[in-house]
Design a protein that fits this description.
Helix content is about 40%, strand content about 15%. It is an alpha/beta fold and about 300 residues long. It has one domain: 3-Layer(aba) Sandwich (Rossmann fold). It has an eight-stranded mixed beta sheet, with helices on both faces. Strand 3, helix 2 and strand 4 form a beta-alpha-beta unit. Helix 3 packs across helix 4. The two termini are about 30 Å apart.
Length: about 300
Amino acid sequence: MPTRAEHMRFPVSCLLALCCAAALAGCGSGSGPDVLTTAIQVVRTPAGTVAYRELGSGPALLLINGADASMDDWPASFVDALAAHHEVVVFDNAGVGRTSAVSAPGSLSIPAMASQTSALISALGLGRPAVLGWSMGGMIAQALAVSHPAQVSRLILAATAVGTGKAVPLPPSATMFALSPAEVVAQMFPKNQAAAASAYVNDSLQYPGSYQVSAATFHSQYLAAERWLAGQDAAGRRPGDIRVPTLVADGTLDQDIRPPNARQLASSVPGAKLLLFDDAGHAFLFQDAATFTRAVETFIG
């Protein structure tokens, strides 16, 4: 969902205790694909410029991140694990980093971001990639599958919700914008998962040249997600039109986009499979990364 829980560019002083613990374990990717050394590229599309990284080989897999996040907020070890078996593309959503905005401030929409994602797929010649969307990225992925079905082979929807107007709503915006770094980490991971939280933070701090999402862009993303959940986007009201194999996943303790939303989404998409991770929150896919990446690889085939 669109929250500061998805943006981990916090001052190191705020995260020293977490990072020290994670640094002892290390997060190197060995001799395989390494997103940390993969340069950011920029491609021109009919929907503006899009910044991205591309690495690995195998069936194409496009990762769509959530709100208040750049492509560098995908933990490096998570991307590298997927790139060991797939051609992985990560990119910045509209108005983030070097990716063009697609609307005036405050008028951003999930379908507009999906259209820009479609333009990226065409520009890179990805054909019909599998698409993994996390949180707001899962909303974009749904809109992409509905509006551009020829560009999606399989759909993985992580910690996200349907746009029919029946989903459990987001936490109040006043709460979302006021979270401290410690509260953000606590919201994404259960209290008993400190090691996983440490590893996630450390992974996100490894990228060189970090940059942040502007407050205006984050606010626009939050409003776009609210409109999606309220059923105000036509694509969101058509989950039954998704005709590609779909995997819906979430943590049973997700405090951001609640588990009932995952169940509702899975029941709304024809033939969708539901995978819930016990004792895991909004960041379940990183907390239980080994299990989740195996499930993704098995699902993609």
